[in-house]
Amino acid sequence: MCVFSRFARGTVAIVLAAGLALAATAARALDLLDGDFQLHGFASLTLVNTTDNNFFGPSDDQVSKDFSEIGVNASWRLSPELHLSAQGLSRRAGGTDDGDVRLDYGIIDWTALSSEAGRGGIRLGRIKTAYGLYNTTRDVPFTRPSIILPQSIYFDRTRNLTVSADGAEIYLDRYGEAGTLSASFAVGQPQTDSDAAKVALVGLNRPGSLDSKLAPDFQLLYEGAGGRYRLAFTALRLDLEYQPGFRDLLHAGKFKLTPLIFSAQYLAENWSVTSEYALRRTSVKDFGPYFYNGTADGESYYLQGTYRLAAQWEALVRYDAYYADRDDRDGQDFAAATRAPGFSRFARDWTIGLRYDVTPQFMLRAEAHRVDGTGFLAVQDNPKTQALQRDWNSFMLQASFRF
Amino acid sequence: MPSITAAIKLVASLLRTPRLWLLALPLLIAGAHAQTPEAAVVVIVHPAMGSETIPRSSLRAIVGMRLQKWPVDAPVKVFVLRDDSPEHATFSKTILQVFPHQLRMAWDRQVFSGQGQYPEQVGSTQEMLSRVASTPGAIGYVKASEVNQNVRVLKIR
């Protein structure tokens, strides 16, 4: 099985890479059906080095190459009302993602209502989850402000739960003189079948599995002055249940996660300021004596500024803070109850970054992080809790290409 | 919050350093020089288009690829020039009143989340004129001095 999956992975990676190269050269030719069919994609490779701890693979005092993203999407506008689209994604991210190709989204979009003043419709299929400002394109380097998104809100550790869901989404847009108001409401089945989703919640080596009820997701977005400023509110509810496996220490426990996110962004010609705040209510119960049950309000926020130094150069500064429990910010109560380090319950990350757009298709990035706390690190990359270091730095280099 | 205090101190000390401000000066001057007067750009549509005017908000939605239908029920077809062409910059900034990079981000967000498509990019003003003239429902833009009788000018209301 393991050998097969490694072989399959390799084959798929080669096929994807070949497809990407082919598609890139033929991109213009593939503008079939008078431009109503479009094929696009992206690929990135990131090198990660950390002074302590591991992030996206073995990076502690060495260079990890275990973070890469490849995606190819196709879209077809059959009529002004009907739009089909799908994206395949292969993502490697240390111990949390192995590069297996999956369907990132696959959507039938029916715009039932349309006028000069707005539109409304329904999307069916696997739909990207509206979650803050960046989630729907979180794996596309060109749409991110930095190599990694602010981890306090866009955890790469638990991404599978919030990346996309299978179901339906109703959307309404209103185009007014002052700005555009968009609302969306989705109900879908989150992806809980991956190991990464399970491990992020219950830890390593658990024989059971994770099930989810249908998850509702609501977002309201206001884009004023032609999108110069953007304000958003997102509410999501995840209701998960753990099914114990053979000889499992854990009981049939329940997770209820309810993140509320407030987002604000201002875009000027040469600079931008973005901030998001998330209040994350987490309720954990019925797992039995070998688990940290309880209800906590997690808190996350970041403030980020970018400045265009020259036509192709952009600099970034960000402060990003994560607290698993805002009533136990330093994690002391947690440490007393579990003997795990308190600093694994928070992370404060100062980031500086530089982006160089060599061409509109090819981008290079460099980024440095100074982090206090290990709150967003993945246990798959850091299995020994006692080996974690509270203060650590990381440095990353990324090259990405798109067509 | 010792790290915040440290960072504020660092930023404050940087701001007090006059040499850094000198470094920023060329950028400011370059920015000021970029504001040279540009030739007027107008919105053009296929000659069979019924309406004479369009609200700016609807035009933004159309160019933003979020409105696929004209009020008369015909499909919209958007043509643009390269992001770095002077006409595209003028069209974005003075007519849509958005920055070209905002448009690009909005298109990227839609294309890579499966919610929309890119507009069709043409290579020159000549191609823009001929494609808009020959494609029903087409919309594009050219310099006011380059409008010909095969397309119609759409006014913003």
Would you mind describing this structure in some detail?
Chain A is mostly beta strands. Chain A is built from five helices and 18 strands. The two termini of chain A are 34 Å apart. Chain B is built from six helices and six strands; from the N terminus they run ααββαβααβαββ. By secondary structure, chain B is α/β, with parallel strands linked by helices. In chain B, strands 2-6-1-5-3-4 form a six-stranded mixed beta sheet, with helices on both faces. Chains A and B meet through strand 1, strand 2, strand 3, strand 4 and strand 5 of A and helix 1, helix 3 and helix 5 of B.
The number of distinct helices of chain A, counting runs of at least 4 residues, comes to: 5
Q: What portion of residues of chain A is helical? A: 10-25%
List unreliable stretches of 5+ residues of chain B: 17-36
How many helix segments of chain B? 6
Largest interface: A-B, 55 and 40 residues
Compact description:
Chain A is mainly β and 403 residues long. Chain A is built from 5 helices and 18 strands.
Keywords for this structure?
heterodimer; A: 403 residues; mainly beta; 16-stranded antiparallel β-barrel; 5 helices; 18 strands; globular; B: 157 residues; alpha/beta; 6-stranded mixed β-sheet; 6 helices; 6 strands
Topology:
The complex is a heterodimer of chains A (403) and B (157).
Chain A: H1 2-25, H2 32-35, E1 37-50, E2 63-77, E3 82-93, E4 97-115, E5 118-128, H3 159-162, E6 164-175, E7 179-190, H4 195-202, E8 209-212, E9 215-224, E10 229-236, E11 238-243, E12 254-267, E13 271-285, E14 294-310, E15 313-323, H5 332-338, E16 346-359, E17 362-372, E18 391-402
Antiparallel strand pairs in A: 1-2, 1-18, 2-3, 3-4, 4-5, 5-6, 6-7, 7-9, 8-11, 9-10, 10-12, 11-12, 12-13, 13-14, 14-15, 15-16, 16-17, 17-18
Chain B: H1 2-15, H2 18-33, E1 41-45, E2 53-54, H3 56-63, E3 77-80, H4 86-96, H5 100-111, E4 120-121, H6 125-134, E5 138-143, E6 152-156
Parallel strand pairs in B: 2-6, 3-4, 3-5
Antiparallel strand pairs in B: 1-5, 1-6
